[in-house]
Design brief:
Number of helices: 0
Largest sheet: 4 strands, antiparallel
Structural class: mainly beta
Strand content: over 45%
Helix content: under 10%
Radius of gyration: 18 Å
Number of domains: 1
Number of strands: 6
Order of helices and strands: EEEEEE
Amino acid sequence: MTRINHLLQNQFDPNGASLNSAVDIHVFVPQNARNPNGRRLEPNMNITSSIVDEDIECNTLKEEFNVYNLSNDTILSVKTVVGQVRKTDLYNIEGEPIYNIDSQPVIKFKKIR
């Protein structure tokens, strides 16, 4: 999910905007796939040195737009598209595996009037 932090209208272009966003990625890990005793991610650790598989194949189940009606008669649509998934040998405190993910937001603006 792409979370919109700030959306500012461009003062020089009434149809333009500046967008600040963050991507939240959540996955469900079944109990039997967890490793509570696995190696933990430590502060200041370089996660890329922990990658054990560079390109995990995945099937897209759902890629939906989040749609916002802005006060300037514009519809903003945002979705996150995953490009590459890398598996590490690290686990979080709940024993869930940690992945390194490349993703990109896709952003569309549409004027209502």
